[in-house]
Amino acid sequence: MDKIDRMRAFALVARNASFTEAAQRMGRSARLVSKYVADLENALGVQLLNRTTRSVSLTDAGATYLMLCEPLLDGFDELEDRVRNEQASLRGVIHISAPTGFGALRLVPSLANFGKKHPQVELDVKFSDRRVSIVEEGLDLAVRIGPLRDSSLKVRQLGRMPLVVCASPTYLEQAGYPSHPRALATHECILDGNMTEPTVWRFNVGGQEETVQVNGRFRMNAPAASARLAAQGAAIARCPAYTVADALQSGDLVELFAEHRMSPYVVAALFPQNRRLTARVRALLEHLAGDPELCPDDKR
Fold first, then answer.
1. Are 170 and 236 in contact (CB under 8 A)?
2. Mean pLDDT across the chain
3. Between 127 and which of 100, 105, 144, 272 could a Cys-Cys bridge form, CB atoms 3.0 to 4.6 Å apart?
4. Where would I find the HTH lysR-type domain in this sequence (predicted)?
5. Would the pLDDT of 69 be above 70?
6. CATH of region 163-260
7. Among the CATH numbers 1.10.10.10, 1.10.10.200, 3.30.710.10, 3.40.50.920, which is that of 3-83?
8. Kind and range of the H or E element at 26?
9. If pLDDT is split at 50, 70 and 90, which confidence band does 299 have?
10. DSSP assignment, residue 48?
11. Which helix (H) or strand (E) holds 205?
């Protein structure tokens, strides 16, 4: 029995927590997939999976084996890709994580274009505004905006995203127009729950970074929600440019302190260091990095 099939069966069962789902993905019967995993465990002399009538979970040995075998499977897939010359005709699944708002507004159109070019590639995208573990969740890559804290991951820059401070004309009429970033201390501001310091806003004043302590009754963990709240006249928001571009153009929001913007955030694709990228993932990275519509906001 092929060891690669055993490893692949185990990895699919582990990632999907289901023998049935793994069997469907392999095009084999659940009984045969179960035999593959059992034979692998017998060959190793350890139990890799805990099985009950309702659930499947990894043992400690299984978690270690999964972490080490997935790069081998990726490398084997890449070997086959190259032999078959699949640069011209890519196939297989790419597992992606992306922020909800940016993913819906900017990433999805780019993925649609990529899908048209490569009709045999499947794109499994999970949208979330929390920072997911790429390795633990079996992702090929994650798109992130902002400071990159995880040094254990490789980074491919895709573009840059400015942060825009803005308010609605209604709010400014009622509360007054702040003449300087320091004046924000006396205004109602929307706090970003994703930030490590949500009450500290930074500005470029005379070429120097200046911090302003802000406060407010509203705390949001989704930038699009902050933008919508600001457009309703509730408070001043600081949002990624993609969330407020349409509202700024329509006049529902007005940008404040455009001349004091700090350096834009990086929009990047992150992927595991110890995993060899398959041809399909490399092709997607090149596509995203070369798409001018993904991050058109940084024109300063």
1. no
2. 89
3. 100
4. 1-59
5. yes
6. 3.40.190.10
7. 1.10.10.10
8. helix 19-26
9. low
10. -
11. strand 200-205
